[in-house]
Structures are given as C-alpha cells and as structure tokens.
Specification:
Length: about 230
C-alpha cells in the first residue's frame, strides 16, 4: 500500500499551499477551502478551483507516479492519496482511494451522494445537480470530516508493505493511518525530510524527493521480494 501526499505531485509542477507559507497562489487558504468560505463567497471558491483544475490539465504524471503504476506488474498495489489531482490515474494505477476528494469532480450541495465528472474543466454558479441543488467542488475542505478515512484505515491494517511518499505526516486524520499498519509490516518513507519522522518505528528512510526515491525503492522492492 502506498500513502501519497503533495510531495509526489509537486514534482509534476503542482504547487502546494504548505510550501507557500499557507498561501495557494495569492489566496489565503481559509478564503477558498473551508465551508465558511463557501458560505461567504461561493463564486470565489469556484473560481479558485477552476484555476487549480486548469493548472492540473497542464501537467503530467512524473516518474514516481509511473513507478507506482509499474509496480502493479509485480504487486497488488493499493494507493491512498491525500492529493485531489488525478495524476495517479493518468499514470496507470488502478486502485486509488482519494482521501480528500477529486478536483475534476463535483458534488451536490443537497445530496452528497450525487457526484459528477466536471465537463469542460469549469464549475460555475448555476451549475446544478439533478435535484436542483448547486454543485460544489468534490473536495474535503478544512473543518469537514474525511468520509473515506475508515476505509483507508482498513486498507492500511491489511498492508504487507507500506510505502509513504511525499507527505509530511502532519495533516490528520491522514497522518494517523501509519498507526494502523501491522507490527510486522515494513514501512518505507520516501521524503527529503524523512529523518524528522522519529515517531514511526522500524521505518526504512529514503531521504530523497519522490522521483529519485521511488526509483531506488523500486529496485530494492524487486530485489527483496521478487528476484529473491
């Protein structure tokens, strides 16, 4: 199982608000990614996510995304991602659980079970679901529950190998998933700042960015588990 964070997508050119001092482009995150922001100024929120969607369409999966997809030839690979982009899908991975939603989808403000692909890349005021409710971005905003966390915890508890890529492990509840790994489950942490994660026991550290780190990890996994 792979748990991925913003560090893996950053190498494709997607900016992260944590790397920009709490800003996403020119926006304070509380202005565009919270239920309060939606209530206060839905047009601004929709504009912000339309811009993010446009940026996403301009980038491509990088080598780290592709390696995870290639590992499906040798392993049963489950991906749990904190990212709302679709780069894992575009790289060819087949089993992906999005903890925080999906940027290229919308959902009804009146019925959260109604989720749609966004056609044309934009979601605008007046775009409504079949029940007549305004559509909102299908993402988990700050202050909202994470509906998929229980499924993610169950997947983590069943993992034979856990790989953590490009995440600071400070955003909860996602950061707590590592605690569900079995005591005999080897954990590999790929991140330039991996040495700071002292709370994880028996972890194999690869202190490199996602692309170069995953290239090394692929060789190690194939040598240890496939070629013997």
């Amino acid at each position: 199982m792979a748990l991925t964070g913003s560090g893996i997508s950053a190498e494709s050119g997607l900016k992260t608000f944590r790397d920009m001092g709490g800003l996403w482009e020119q926006y304070e995150i509380t202005e565009v990614a919270s239920p309060e922001a939606w209530e206060r100024d839905p047009e601004l929120v929709l504009k912000f996510y339309n811009e993010r969607r446009k940026q996403l369409l301009e980038v491509r999966p990088n080598e780290a995304h592709k390696i995870l997809a290639e590992l499906e030839y040798h392993f049963d690979v489950e991906i749990i991602t904190q990212n709302i982009d679709d780069l894992h899908e575009r790289a060819g991975s087949s089993k992906i659980l999005h903890l925080h939603g999906e940027l290229r989808k919308s959902r009804s403000t009146g019925d959260p079970n109604l989720v749609y692909d966004i056609e044309g890349g934009e979601l605008n005021p007046g775009d409504k679901c079949e029940k007549g409710y305004q559509l909102r971005p299908h993402v988990v905003w700050f202050g909202e529950p994470v509906p998929a966390i229980e499924e993610a915890a169950a997947l983590t508890s069943e993992a034979d190998i856990l790989v953590i890529i490009g995440t600071s492990l400070v955003v909860y509840p996602a950061a707590g998933l590592v605690d569900y790994a079995g005591k005999d489950c080897p954990i590999y942490l790929v991140d330039p700042h991996a040495g700071q994660q002292s709370r994880i026991k028996n972890v194999h550290l690869i202190q490199e960015r996602a692309t170069t780190g995953m290239s090394k990890l692929k060789e190690e996994l194939l040598k240890k588990y496939i070629s013997g």
